[in-house]
Amino acid sequence: MNTFHTSSITRSVLLLGLVSVVADRSAVAEEIVVDVNTTIDVGSPLIGPDLSVVDGANPPTVLDVQTHSGGDIRVHGTSIVNVRNGSWIGSTDVFDHGTLNLFDGRVYDDLNVYGFGTVNVFDNGVVEEKLKVHGSSTVNVFGGTMEGLFALSSEGTNTSTVNVSGGNIGSGIFTGNSKVTISGGETIGFTARDNSTIEIRGGLFMSSSFSSLVGDSAVVNIFGRDLEFNDGVLTGFLLDGTPISHEFQITDSAQVNLINVPEPASVTLMLLAVSICVLLKRRSWTGRRRSPTGAF
After folding, report:
1. How far is Cα 156 from Cα 158, in angstroms, rounded to an integer?
2. Is 223 within 8 Å of 238 (Cβ atoms)?
3. In three state form, how does the secondary structure of 252-289 look?
4. Tens-level pLDDT at each residue, the chain (296 residues)
């Protein structure tokens, strides 16, 4: 597979003209290497071909996608790719310590993150297929929409980290040593396997017909108020106040732990009661010290 640096493409455009370079795809490299800060906008010669974004002389390389680029993107090293302005990109892989920020745009295929890479999905970000988290990578879902969110770190030293505070993640599959925190957003449920750990503090479980499956040695910790199981169905309120009525199927040595947290008012009353008890105890002790046998 042929590759060219962006500087080579720029020279080609100057010598041959934009139309001749882009029109004849057989003469254009299958993948273009981007190693300098670059913006893809209307008329850019980088629209169409697949791109590999790598560290150049002044890392990190930053690629800003401002229009539909069409091609697949590979992010390497410490490079950063920002997708904005409703842009569309193809299948995307993030490697090493690379970062993809999906601000306002769409990945119209799978999005994979490996190694120690990071993916941040914001309110208007869309992953048409699945967001797959491998290795020791990190995904933060602040908003947006995706068909599914899969944390697939292999067992061993790798621990993929997923934080969901908004958006619609469809369904989730969490395996290996994945660590997942759900504090917001919407989902129909998830499957947890191996040694994965899931912490649920909020969010909306939308489907009453979908069960979450927890197996192997997976652990699910759920924080809220008035949480209880009735015939496998969890009811109550999550910590963010969202009501929940969702079925869990638990197998093997897996655990689902319910942590009922008192409401702030209850905590205040409890602290007040403790303070009164301490004060009364001190007064009682002072009264004994000033008894008639030791009167002044």
Report:
1. 6
2. yes
3. CCCEEEEEECCCHHHHHHHHHHHHHHHHHHHHHHHHHH
4. 434 454 444 333 322 232 223 333 344 447 899 999 999 999 999 999 999 999 999 999 999 999 988 899 999 999 999 999 999 999 999 999 999 999 999 999 999 999 999 999 999 999 999 999 999 999 999 999 999 999 987 656 779 999 999 999 999 999 999 999 999 999 999 999 999 999 999 999 987 778 999 999 999 999 999 999 999 999 999 999 999 999 999 999 999 999 999 976 444 545 555 556 555 566 555 555 554 544 43
pTM for the full model?
A: 0.81
Question: Nearest Cα to 168, choosing from 144, 184, 189?
Answer: 144
Contact 144, 125 (CB under 8 A): yes
Cis peptide before 60 (omega within 30 of 0): yes
CB 167 within 8 A of CB 144: yes
Distances (CA, A) of 116 to 25, 59, 96, 113, 158: 34, 17, 5, 8, 10
Q: From the CB of residue 167, how many other CB atoms can be counted at a distance below 10 Å?
A: 24
Q: Write 288-295 long-range contacts (CB < 8 A, 24+).
A: none
Q: Which among 43, 44, 12 has a CA at the least distance from the CA of 28? A: 12
Please report which helix (H) or strand (E) contains residue 22, including its range. Answer: helix 18-23
Cβ neighbourhood burial of 274 (10 Å; 0-12, 13-18, 19+):
exposed
Half-sphere CA count of 63, side-chain side, radius 13 A: 32
Task: Specify the pairing of strand 233-238 against strand 243-250.
Answer: antiparallel
**Cα–Cα distance between 153 and 179 in angstroms, integer?**
9
Instruction: Give the whole-angstrom CA distance, residue 175 versus residue 157.
Output: 13
